């Protein structure tokens, strides 16, 4: 799996019936480096090697973790702005996945409802703060005083919302954003209202094309190349709302890295006046706490890290591929689970291509590669030493519980814990278990609770750390614990990414 990965289970061991040890001994030791893509692109990796060329590899993980722990707490502020009535608050709710009547939703209405800048925390992007700004062009916020009153300087990026043609006020806002050299999206809302009036498909497509041309025309006149999105806040599956979300998710990490590096540059190399201004701005906006800023200053003195080096580190981190091994015995449903996690149906084209040599990826898990490793009994029953060596190639593990009598899932968990890595237990085909227990005079909840209790006893007897088990049916992502599994997986992957990156860099520097 790129640099530093020395072992792999060959295809005939993983995906077919058991191969005698004499025939598979050499193949188990096959190098993975020649067949799998690296975890970081070569150009970014070379920059990182230069950054740490003179460093002791043993100190690199601690240095990187110290830096990334502070970066993980760094917040950026996205302002949603535009004329009053353009649909800013409705767009905020759509971005947050909330209905207007939900708790915590932005207030919407036909009259001016936003009187001051209101902060909203994105549920899946904890580092992002969305700000619903008052509408421009009202008696309270006139066009002339608007930018100064709402203080554009506080924000790192803007979403400029329009609901009709681009007007003079919108052009004024674009000019003010550009003067501050801040990125922005131009978002045309209420598309559904405009398209609904068109009867034919051709007329609808023509209307959408005219809206886009109107938006892009004003940008081109200013020689600006910015994203334009045509969306409906009430129909998020149609038009370009999903494209907006995917683009935004991709862009915000890079934006955080740029804002963070720019702050470091001013703090370390900008002279005392610029450093003081930058530090005060970070503190006043709550992007970092005072103790985090002090930690950054001390760390940079100890390590010699400057803004340029930090920028290279964060750029490499943004391209780092996290490798997740889905481990199961033959017939345990490992392949089906991988397909479910990436949103594929079994019958979809390409669904059967996921394998040990062909990882699966999904927009729902950016920069994560899922490896379907079925048939683990072929390696485990031959050599747990080889198994453990192979496991070390991955960053995180989903261990499927199938044959509880042979308890291979417990042996796998013990091996992973010895590697000091993280994992989740998943019991697939729980629907089949319920069907096998149908003769018992118990309801579904009682049967599942008893299964969980038995599992906890097995963990305790095996001296393993206490773990939740997720009971799922991979063919129904809405049933049982599948939603909880996805939530836990996303959280855990975010947690392990920094440490996996730090140790990978240290290992790469050590081996060069």
TrEMBL record:
Q: Which Pfam families match?
A: IIGP (PF05049)
List each copy of the IRG-type G domain by range. 74-251, 320-492
The keyword Protein biosynthesis belongs to this UniProt entry's keyword annotation = no
Among InterPro entries, the record links this protein to: G_IRG_dom, Immunity-related_GTPase-like, IRG, P-loop_NTPase
Q: Which UniProt keywords apply?
A: GTP-binding, Hydrolase, Nucleotide-binding
Q: Which PROSITE patterns match?
A: G_IRG (PS51716)
Residues passing through the membrane, by range: none
Q: Which family does it belong to?
A: Belongs to the TRAFAC class dynamin-like GTPase superfamily. IRG family.
Q: What is this protein called?
A: Interferon-inducible GTPase 5
Q: Which organism is it from?
A: Labeo rohita
